Amino acid sequence: GNPDLPTAVNITWSSINFKTILQWQPKPSGYFYTVEINGMTSDTKRKCILTAETECDVTDVLRNVKETYTAHILSVTSSEMDNFEEPPFAVSEQFTPYNQTVLGKPEIKNYTQKGSKLNVVFQDPLTPYTFPNGSFQSIRDIFQHDLEYKLYYWKDQSSGK
User: Fold this and answer.
1) Domain-ending residue, one of 75, 99, 123
2) Number of folded domains in the chain?
3) Domain identity same for 119 and 76
4) Which of 51, 56, 89, 91 has the largest CB neighbor count within 10 A?
């Protein structure tokens, strides 16, 4: 590889409802980045090959959400991609989507109140992942019984509602 190429720094994972973006610095000049995602039990997958960007959407290669991943961000020149020497790279912190994605708030579809009983129906946030029929999976489809909501409500002093 070319030891003179700068390697990525300040590597961060940003994940909301399993949509996951990897970001880093600095902006490349005269070289490119290629991202390799390594799972503990899965093959290495390449994303954002020869990119001049400093972010990469890696959602589709993190489908096994309980897997723990690391990213290698390779600094390469376009001619080096056919070279068998390993280019300089930086390694991210580990990331496990199931534990580390940030969950967006659910929507309240509707609610009814009968006496002192309040019934609230939630719409779970959707994820970028799809079922075989093409419909999007919700966070409940992924978390199943591990997902629960806490609902806080209070009585309006003036109206009593």
Assistant:
1) 99
2) 2
3) no
4) 56
39 close to 68: Cβ distance less than 8 angstroms: yes
Q: What are phi and psi of 81, to 5 degrees?
A: -60, -25
CATH number of the domain that 24 lies in? 2.60.40.10
Contact 75, 28 (CB under 8 A): yes
pLDDT at 1 over 90: no
Average pLDDT, the chain: 92
Provide the β-strand partners of residue 33: 51, 75
- Judge whether 1 lies within some domain: no
In a domain, 117, yes or no: yes
More confident: 113 or 47: 47
pLDDT digits (tens, 9 = 90+) for 88-131: 999 999 999 999 999 999 999 999 989 889 899 999 999 999 99
Domain extent at residue 135:
103-160
Distance CA 14, CA 10 (A): 12
Q: Are 95 and 68 in contact (CB under 8 A)?
A: yes
DSSP letter at 38 equals E
123 in a structural domain: yes
Say what the pTM is: 0.87
Identify the burial level of 96 via C-beta atoms within 10 angstroms of its C-beta, where 0-12 means exposed, 13-18 middle and 19 or more buried. Answer: middle
Question: Do 60 and 116 reside in the same domain of the chain?
Answer: no
